[in-house]
Amino acid sequence: MSGTAEPSRRAGGSRLEMYLLFLPTSLWLILFIAIPTVMFFIYSFWTVKDEFLVKGFSLLNYLRFFTTGVYPELLGRTLVLALEVSGITFAMGYPLALFISRKSGRAKSILYMLVVIPLLTSYIVRIYAMRLILGSNGLINNLLIILGLIREPLPFLLFNRFAIFLTLSVILAPFMVMPIFTSLEKIPRSYIEASRDLGASDFETFWRIVFPLTLPGVIAGFMFIFILTLGDFLTPILVGGTQGMTFGKIIQMNYGIAYDWPFGSALSVILLILSLAIILIASRFGALREI
Amino acid sequence: MKELLRLERLSKRFGAVAAVNSVSLSVLDGEFLTILGPSGSGKTTILRMIAGFEQPTGGRILLDGEDILDTPVNRRPFNTVFQDYALFPHMSVFQNIGYGLKVRHLPRVEIRDRVEEALASVDLAGYAARYPDQLSGGQRQRVALARALILRPRILLLDEPLGALDLALRKRMQITLKEIQERVRITFIHVTHDQEEALSISDRIAIISLGDLQQVAEPKNVYFRPANMFVARFMGENNLIGGRLSARSGDLVRVQTPMGTLHSCSAGLGQADAEGRQVSLVVRPENIVLLSEEDSGAVNALEAEVVREVFIGSEDKLIVRPRGCPGMEIMVKIHSDTAVGARSGQRVRIGWRAENCWLIPEAEAACP
Amino acid sequence: MAAGRANGWERTGSALSRIVSPGFGFLLFAVTYIPIVLVLLFSFNSSQVATFPIERLTLDWYRLLFRNESILKAFGNTLIIGAAAVAGSLVIGVLSAYFLRRYRIRGAFAYQLAILMPFILPGIFTGLALLLFFSAAGIPRSLFTVFIGHIVFCTAVVFKTVMARFGTLERSQEEASYDLGANSLQTFFYVVLPNIRTALITGALLAFVLSFDETMITFFVIGPQLTLPLKIWAMMRANFSPQVHALASIVFVTSTALVIVFSKYILGREPRR
């Protein structure tokens, strides 16, 4: 006899109580979430002239985005980057998720913990650590030289788009593994047993039963990686050098060096809309159930 | 007994669905009333509306003549025993039972005394320090009961309290509930889907189906004199033989059925029910006997063919198919110490006396 | 069948699954952890430059670290903000979640979305939005603004964990409490709070760990006083010192230790009913 919608409303509560509970949380929301978001949008319609903020309404920033080829192209390239990162983390992360979910008990817990731990440790440290691997004096180059495969260190591993790609793939991999693992765990054992009972081979069972049921998790993984890639600026700054540029970095630069807050805001708004669109699309495929 | 609570045309809609449909019911002071019905009948919803967990979409609830719909749950002088007991897992038995007293800020000494007394009254003296997860199902149920009763509510509401117990325990608890109710003299409103349970412990039974009230009466009447087809079918196994009233004179009637003319008394018919009316003859399995070849004593006799025998130890039932209506199955309870050993397909003659009768003035298809 | 939570396909043993899966798995683990191990390694490296071969092992960098005022200060700031943000977010997060549980309002979904936004979207949005807000309101960037940024983020975390717990909590206990005569306040403290205790701890721990490492939001709203991640960032951008390795190693080890010790909570073991 568990309650449905209404019980609480009459069950000893009064209008006063409802407002008492409502007020602080709403105040909070309005002050630090609603207003800043609105400011975001407002700023995007302002402009900067000669280092001064012009508060008049103007679509200049958006026009600038759409007409200057550089920006849409950069957005496009960042999307491609996101796709690449998603692709490789999927290719490697799915087998890993599969592997862990087949384990039982302690092994499973420990392995999963190993996947999650990096997420909870310093983001900056992990990006920086990639420099130690990719640099001219880094691990890879040293290994290759020691093995005698090359004579001179390869310069193209670091401070370019490729480095960003590699770094993001390593750092964001857990975000692909986790939702896939979650959706794998949700599959009732009886489904698999039924499939085997009906004569399907292991591969068929996987392909026809397991994989389709994990699609929401896969899509959730893609969604996370896309959004995180689009919004990341630390990685390009630390390992991208001058050649590696992403949309996130451009936004940050407008708040930093370029000091054009309105334009940066406009770019952020565009990014926000894009991100929300991605979330919306992903949720159509059930991705949100896996969070 | 005087009326304590009255439900007036109580209704509850969830969207387009009417869970409870204009139910009017009177609850008498000190009685043990059971609201009985199958799942989804709305019985729990009615209980929750009385408790205050749901607001009706129509109708009123009157306590001592006063409308209580505006009174919130925690102010109504009722207490509920929940189906899953809802014991607080982080509190001991003592703290659970004393909870209602604590939130009323009663002095600790008084709380302690009353809780000990409550524990004793449900036979759980000494269990005060235990936690719910250390108790058996039956013990938890008693704690839930004590927790509600300690507050001396005017009405105790019980939502299928015995559902989770095994059969033997259940039967014992039914008796215990009845004893407690008689001892404390509090009005109990009890909701269940088990008609045997309702029959054994209630003072009155209110039968609900799909949101509509079907009949309110003492157990005897509900059992022997069902008001309509639903009640007849729901209250145990009844044989319903549909037909047309072909003659009525004084207390005796004749009913025309595909199996021939059957004789009955007129009990259950209204004054206005005259010849031509569709009626159903309600014949209880225990009133039917197997006739031997020579038997001609019974007025109602039918040729039939055995379908199967069901022997479950305490009773022996024969399912037979009457000649003239091969789609119908009639159940006969055999009074015998052992299974009769009837074979499927065997021909028998069954019969019952006209006086074992009850008529319902409605019928479905005469021969299914 | 293996004991424990066997899920029926341990024995599906095509070569594909026997070799490929574990192969990729370990590759991914290696790729993830080798960089970190390197940082750890170099933190003991005597030479200034982070290259092979490692000459001598030394604890010098660590020693220097502990004498470094600015680093200690940053560490302290991070702890204070973490504690404060978690405390504040517990209050707001629980109130918000409880409000939604008690009352059905029409904008419930939008309400939830708004609270969770700082967590769902990458930090750049929250950071920028808050930056604009503070700048327009005339609030100078400082530890206070960082505190606000963190509390916004932590509230989302606490809210999420508590809502998840509410989702599995049957209402009958709360109903019983009202039925027995308690008012909302009593019901909240006596019945609801004890039942969400585990979720609260999980939320608080998760929020603290995430606040400790928070970089993106902090990046935009930070003033002259730094938090640890931002200090590391500054050290990486400025003239290089191997102390960074030592610092990074400590941060990594601490976080990991925290996670392992509280793994029971953070990794979402089932709360006992």
Spatial separation of the terminal alpha carbons of chain C: 29 Å
Q: How many helix segments of chain C?
A: 13
Q: In the CATH scheme, what's the topology name of the largest domain in chain C?
A: MetI-like fold
Helix count of chain A?
13
Level-1 CATH class name of the domain at 68-127 and 159-290 in chain A:
Mainly Alpha
CATH topology name of the domain at 68-127 and 159-290 in chain A: MetI-like fold
Rg of chain A over CA atoms, rounded to whole Å, is 24 Å
Shape verdict of chain C = globular
Give the name of the CATH superfamily of the domain at 68-127 and 159-290 in chain A: MetI-like
Please outline the major beta sheet of chain A.
2 strands, antiparallel
The H/E string of chain A reads HHEEHHHHHHHHHHH
Low-confidence stretches of chain A: 1-12
Key features of this structure:
heterotrimer, A: 291 residues, mainly alpha, two-stranded antiparallel ribbon, 2 strands, globular, B: alpha+beta, Rossmann fold, six-stranded mixed sheet, five-stranded antiparallel sheet
Description:
The complex is a heterotrimer of chains A (291), B (368) and C (273). Chain A has 291 residues and is mostly helical. Chain A has a domain of 192 residues: MetI-like (MetI-like fold, Orthogonal Bundle), CATH 1.10.3720. Chain A is 73% helix and 2% strand. In chain A, helix 4 packs antiparallel against helix 10, helix 6 crosses helix 8 and helix 8 crosses helix 10. The longest helix of chain A is centred in the first third of the chain and has 33 residues. The relative contact order of chain A is 0.12. A six-stranded mixed β-sheet of chain B has the order 6-7-8-3-9-10, with helices on both faces. Chain B is elongated and about 80 Å long. The two termini of chain B are 44 Å apart. The mean pLDDT of chain B is 88. Chain C has two domains: 46 residues, no CATH class; 200 residues, Orthogonal Bundle (MetI-like fold), CATH 1.10.3720. In chain C, helix 3 packs antiparallel against helix 9, helix 3 crosses helix 11 and helix 4 crosses helix 6. Chains in contact: A-B, A-C, B-C. At the A-C interface, helix 1, helix 2, helix 4, helix 5 and helix 6 of A face helix 1, helix 3, helix 4, helix 5 and helix 6 of C.
